[in-house]
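Note to self: keep these together.
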Amino acid sequence: MRRGKVQLRRIEDKASRQVSFSKRRSGLFKKAHELAVLCDAEVGISVFSASGRPYEFCSSSSLENTINRYLQFSDAKQDVSKHIDEAQNHGKDFACPTINSELMEIAPWSLSLKTDMAKLDVNELEQLENELSDTFKQIQSRKTKLLMDTINKLQDQET
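Structure:
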């Protein structure tokens, strides 16, 4: 017995839509689990129902760690190539002139921030947190890139 082809359009009946959502969500999570086990992959899925209720599946310890790992590697590609291009264009006066100039901008600001921290509102604190987080991610991605380059060079030397 074959199943018929399903038309891809919104299911009008609310009860049928909920049943279909539950079954398909379970099937999706089952396939994600199979992918993780068979291919030793780290898989994370986040699904929100029509009512806004979140459902998640993660093959590792937490979905947040998986998302952070994804963001780190996707940002690393862009950040590393950007910093390499900028470093080549600026010459070789400093080891990393763009980071040096960014640190010079942040340093006085962060020193004055210690005294003005109580005056900042939630939005300003969130902006500060995001800027520091972005800077931290750039540092981590550059460090990862340098370590990977070193490992590759050592592996090339062994062969």
